[in-house]
Design a protein that fits this description.
Helix content: 25-40%
CATH superfamily of the largest domain: Glycosidases
Strand order of the largest sheet: 5-4-3-2-1-7-6
Structural class: alpha/beta
Number of helices: 12
Shape: elongated
Number of domains: 2
CATH class of the largest domain: Alpha Beta
CATH topology of the largest domain: TIM Barrel
Distance between the termini: 108 Å
Radius of gyration: 28 Å
């Protein structure tokens, strides 16, 4: 009798334990996010620094010039990336998303991209890992809408990161918190794409994650699977993701989301902190088959004014659907590269001078050694200048010292100068031929003939060493 009771008691215990295990497994299956363990070891929430690493910030500011790349399946049709989904019909949405099924950039050569960026003087790259349409250009476990599910089948972000890093270019990823794909598949519409609802509990993707866990997971992948990632760029409300990024990688530099990043404009005043102006080579972020491309002179002028005001320029291109950089963009980058070959010293590692400009002459400075760079536009037929192109100008904000020297970057000689109480008087003669270009109307008038003249009509950088602010000498 005792044995029978013991057997019955043991049987009941086994049934109870089995029932408990069953219900626990059922609850986890219903809510997979509840059982998910962190993919990486995270910094403790109460110990993580919720700001950019000061050293990384200075490294970012020193870089000065970066390459932005917007690319995805939509490039096959020449549309703007993602935004055509806004207020689109269900029929158009399907057609847009079906483009992933034919995306096959067989001529994509990341090493060629990276070499061109290096030639153009780029110090960092920001590649669109996921834009607003939700398409992942990397092999994510959190979504099936990704590059490795297309006919191409290979992880493009991984190739970009490896190729640019091999050229010594800092690697960064753009990531959009706003996600049309999540909204369409779950039926959870956000009031604004730039203000996604991180509290949305609708499950998404093969791992059936809530919205915030889906995006945190992808951020973890980008920061841990692709080598040394320097920066991440959040396009929209991103507080949970920004904090999570620093918990995953404390020294990651958060670009947009933490610093000012105006688009297609340059703020009017200098700001001696990290900021970045994002500009396109044409007027669409993604590939356009008939682009209206900015001139090299315009891009160079923008770069100079941005650097004079303390910011970085992030210059965007939209590659072709087959993976090549479009010819107009390549030509522009090569022209920019030639200018940077001559004048890059005045762009990298510099900060704002005491004034941004004196009329059309713009300044940067290398504070550690008291070097000032003055960007001037050469003129033709200037009285007192021996060569066809040159410039005479006076500076009020800069004073030389006994140890000062004045040169033109990329040229030997061609500078005369005098310092007196009324300012610094400089005469520059342009002597270095970097391109053979037909004379402009002004040059023809100056030379009375149809000759070839010195280089392109770019600004040149005049280097003044051991200089000081005029106000400082006055004191």
């Amino acid at each position: 009798m005792i044995r029978k009771r013991a057997f019955i008691l043991l049987f009941l215990v086994v049934v109870a334990v089995a029932t408990l295990i069953f219900f626990k497994r059922t609850r986890k299956a219903e809510n997979p996010s509840a059982q998910a363990a962190p993919a990486v070891t995270l910094q403790a929430e109460d110990k993580v620094r919720l700001s950019n690493d000061p050293r990384k910030t200075e490294q970012f500011r020193d870089a000065g010039l970066g390459l932005f790349i917007h690319w995805g399946p939509n490039s096959q049709m020449g549309t703007e990336i993602s935004w055509p989904l806004n207020n689109a019909s269900s029929d158009y949405v399907k057609k847009y998303y079906d483009l992933a099924g034919t995306f096959n950039p067989v001529r994509f050569d990341p090493a060629e991209w990276a070499r061109l960026a290096k030639l153009a003087g780029m110090e960092y790259v920001c590649f669109t890992a996921k834009h607003h349409d939700g398409f992942a250009m990397f092999d994510t476990a959190y979504s099936d809408f990704k590059i490795t599910k297309t006919p191409y089948g290979k992880d493009i972000a991984a190739q970009v990161a490896a190729a640019f890093r091999a050229e010594g270019i800092l690697v960064g990823f753009y990531y959009s918190p706003g996600d049309f794909r999540y909204q369409f598949e779950t039926g959870r519409k956000f009031k604004s794409l730039y203000e996604p609802d991180f509290t949305s509990g609708a499950y998404f993707g093969p791992l059936k994650k809530t919205f915030v866990d889906y995006e945190r997971g992808q951020v973890e992948e980008l920061l841990t699977k692709y080598g040394d990632v320097f920066l991440i760029w959040f396009d929209g409300k991103c507080e949970p993701l920004k904090k999570h990024s620093w918990r995953v990688k404390q020294d990651i530099f958060v670009d947009r989301g933490e610093i000012p990043t105006p688009e297609q404009e340059i703020p009017g005043k200098a700001d001696d902190q990290a900021w970045e102006s994002c500009m396109t080579t044409s007027w669409q972020w993604s590939y356009h088959p008939i682009p209206d491309v900015r001139t090299p002179k315009e891009v160079i002028a923008n770069l100079i004014q941005i650097r004079a005001r303390g910011g970085n320029m992030l210059l965007n291109i939209g590659p072709r659907p087959d993976g090549r950089i479009a010819d107009p963009d390549e030509a522009l980058l090569r022209e920019l590269g030639l200018w940077m070959m001559l004048n890059g010293e005045a762009v990298r590692g510099v900060r704002p001078w005491t004034v941004t400009n004196e009329d059309d002459i713009w300044f940067t400075t290398r504070r550690a050694d008291g070097t000032v760079y003055a960007f001037i536009e050469p003129q033709y037929g200037v009285k007192g200048v021996s060569t066809t192109a040159g410039r005479k100008f006076n500076l009020k904000s800069v004073r030389t010292t006994a140890d000062s020297k004045i040169t033109v970057l990329g040229q030997e000689g061609g500078v005369e100068w005098k310092q007196d109480a009324s300012g610094l008087h400089v005469t520059v003669s342009c002597t270095h031929t970097v391109q053979l270009v037909r004379s402009s109307k002004a040059a023809k008038k100056a030379t009375k003939g149809d000759a070839f003249t010195w280089g392109s009509e770019w600004p040149i950088a005049v280097k003044i060493t051991k200089a000081e602010a005029a106000a400082a000498r006055a004191k």
